[in-house]
Structure formats: structure tokens, C-alpha cells
Amino acid sequence: MTRTAFTPRTLSLAVLAVALLGGCASFSPDGGFDAVQSAARSHLQKDVAWARDDASRSQTQARIDALLAQPLSADDAVQIALLNNPGLQAAFNTLGIAEADRVAAGRLPNPGFSIGRMTRGSEVEWERSLHLNLARLLTMPMRIEIEQRLFEQTRQTLVLEVLRLAAETRRAWVAAVAAGQTALYQQQAMEAAEAGAELARRMAQVGNWSKLKQAREQSFYADAALAVARAEQAKGQARERLVRLMGLDEGGRVQLPDRLPDLPEALPRLPDIEQQAMDSRLDLQMVKLQTEALAKNLGLTRSTRLINVLELGISNNSSNQEPVQRGYEISFELPLFDWGQTRVVQAESRYRQALARARETAVNARSEVREAYAMQQGQYAIARHLRDEVVPLKQRISEENLLRYNGMLIGVFELLADARSQIASVNAAIEAQRDFWLADADLAMALVGTPGKTAVTSVSSAPAEAAGGH
């Protein structure tokens, strides 16, 4: 049997160098979570916690209980979600998985050991072999760099997940508070419709009101009752969505304010908003890291295309009749049928795919931030117009009609119809105010990552508007 031999000095130096390289790979004390915490404080001014033991879970629960003991603001809801959302807690464990891959890439591959026993007559031969994967040892620096980039990409993904959860929770809080505010005004509209229907019934009984007019008032009351039922349903849905995002088992402890925050006096102008998004969006940074990792992987694939399996072996053969045999051997695959071209083409295709997706992400980011900025500005203008023009005008009309009613110039039904029209305008103002705060949350998310859209159940005020001309 022919064996390829190496000097012990050369072999020892190679193994020692790789051992020193592999000895540097270890787990970090925080598991890479400090970077996620710092990003949350920087972008949100909020804390995130990774509950990995009973002590941290108890501390987190105490903080959640303190926040739930008072009416819940949007910032408090976001903080509870970042501390308690089970999906986010599950996502944090991907950081541990990525770090384990990074550490594994920097550690020596486990050697293989084989032992065999052969006999020839009275001769007994023992063969012992120790094998080490040389290909993995030689490419270890490149693998460490690749896994480090993937680890950084995982951290960026988690930061983006934290920001998305914060934005979704803020939108859910806005929707829940607006739904409660709308339900209250719909209840007032129903009470006005009920009073009108009861008055119409009494006047019809004494012959002072036609059956047609009575049916119209009764129909409006039925429509108003239906609107109240839908508003209560929307209120319950919005509240439960907020409870789910905060990771609470039940929503009975959640106290929401009665109304949305007031509109700001003015909005800041952002002329360089596109460049700001290009500099700060985490999804663009993630795509960059992914593309760089694939580029490194392509270099690794080209380097190892012909040597797919390269092993170093140390052999020791002993016999009860012959002296002990010692030696070294290298084994590798012969590229007779597969020259590694398939792996190279696959890596190149993935790299080109990553480049195209990076460009797509950049184009989408510019468009999304422009759209979010325009939506925020437009919703602000609509909400201001309803608050400063439409609602005060309806209020003045109501006051004038009340004076006309006191002077017996109009009847009670005209007064009730005017009151219903005023309630409809207030409901429209609430929805516009809600849409502005949702658009504001979307813009904040568009500046740091992919924005999301919150589906909000709109409560129709058509019955009240239709009665305005009664």
C-alpha cells in the first residue's frame, strides 16, 4: 500500500495554527442582544427584554403590571408589546441559533477515528486511522467571515422586527381608541333617533303625523341601531388586536383613553426624506449584508470547486508478527464527473438574484417613503379641515336652529335631524383624526423599514347624513 507522507514538523505546525484560530470562537456574554436593545432605544426610546429565565420574566411582568394600572397611552402599549409579545420573544431565539452557527464555523472540525482488525493465518493485524477534514480547515477563515455577516444580518432582521411590532402596536392603539370614540358618538346618534321615533309614534297616535313620516323616523332609528352594533363590533375587534400585539392573555385590564390625541399644530417639512430613508432603512442594510455574504460565498465556492472533500489522515498499523507501521495520507474526491460547475453556477445565480433584489428594495424604499409622506400630509390637511371648518360650521347651524326652534319657527323633527347631521360630522372628524395618526405611524416606519398597512373597520355614518335633509 502506497502512502503520501508529511514530516511531523509540518503537520504539527498546520494543526497548531488552525487550533489557535478555532480557539478564538466563543459565545458572547449577551448573545448579540445588546445591539438589538441599543437600536430599540435609538429609534423608539423604548426597552426590549429577552426573557430567558424566571427572574427576568418576573421583572418584566412587574413592569407590565405597573403600565396596565393606568390608562394606556400609545407609548405604554408599544412598551408592553416590546416586553411581552410572544412572537417577538420567539424571534429573539434566532439570534442564538445564528450565533451558534458563527461559533461553529470558527471551531475545529471533529476528527474521525477508525479501527480495524484483520487476520492472516496466525497473524493478527490492527489498523488505526485518525482523519481530519483539511478542506474545512483551509477555508475556515472565509467561513467565519460568512457566518459573521449572517449573524449581523440576523441582528438587523430582529431590529426591523422590533420596529415593525412597535409600529403595528401604535396603529392598533390608534384604531382601538378611535373605534371606542366612534362607538360613543354612534350611541348618541341612536339616542337622538330613538327620541325622534318615539315622538313620531305618539304624534301618529293622535293623528298629527302621517304613517309615512312615522315609518321614516322608525327606519332611521333602525339604521342607527345597526350602526351602533357595527361600531361596537369594530371596537371589540380593534381592542382584541391591540391585546394580541401586547401579548396579554385577556384584555380586561386594559384601560384606553376616551379620545385620540389632538392634532399637532404643524407638521415638519422633510425635503430630504428620500435620502434620509436611504441612510437609515434597515431593510436596505440587510440586503447589503446579504449580498456581501453571497459574494464571499461565491469566492469560497470557486476556491473549493475541484476539491470538494479533502481529508488528512494519520495511520497506525500493528501486527503480532511485524513491526508497527506509521504514516500519513490525504484523500480527496477526483473531479471526473462533477467538476463543481453546478455549485459555481448556483452561487453566481444567487448573487445576481441578490443584486436585483437589492435594487428592487432601493426603488421600493424611495417610493414607499414618498407615498407615506404624501399620505401623512394629506390626512393632516383633511383632519384639520374637518376640525376647524366642518365641525364648527355644523355647530353654528345647530345653534341657529335651536334659536329658531325656541321661536317656534321650526319643529322638533327638524331640530333632531340637524343634531344627527352634527353627530355625523363629528364621526367623520374622528375618522380623519384616526387616519392621520395611522399615516404618521406609517411614515415613521417607512423611514426605518418596510411600512405596513393597518386594516381598520370603518363605521358608516350614512344614516345620519341621509337624515340631514329630513
Structure description:
The structure is a single chain. 68% of the residues lie in helices and 8% in strands. The protein is an alpha+beta fold and 470 residues long. It has a four-stranded antiparallel beta sheet with strand order 1-2-3-4. The chain starts with 7 loop residues before the first helix and ends with a helix.
What keywords describe this structure?
470 residues, alpha+beta, Outer membrane efflux proteins (OEP), 2 domains, 4-stranded antiparallel beta sheet, 13 helices, 4 strands, 8% strand, disordered C terminus
- Number of domains as seen in the coordinates: 2
Shape: elongated
End-to-end Cα distance, whole Å, is 108 Å
Secondary-structure element string? HHHHHEEHHHHHEEHHH
Number of helices: 13
Number of strands: 4
Q: Uncertain runs with pLDDT below 50, 5 residues or more?
A: 1-11, 305-310, 454-470
- Under CATH at level 1, the class of the largest domain stands as Mainly Alpha
CATH H-tier superfamily of the largest domain:
Outer membrane efflux proteins (OEP)
Would you give the CATH topology of the largest domain? Outer membrane efflux proteins (OEP)
The value of Rg in angstroms is 36 Å
User: Mind describing the biggest β-sheet?
Assistant: 4 strands, antiparallel
Strand content: 5-15%
Structural class of the secondary structure composition?
A: alpha+beta
The largest beta-sheet arranges its strands as 1-2-3-4
CATH architecture of the largest domain: Up-down Bundle
Report helical residue fraction.
55-70%
How confident is the prediction overall: mean pLDDT?
Answer: 76
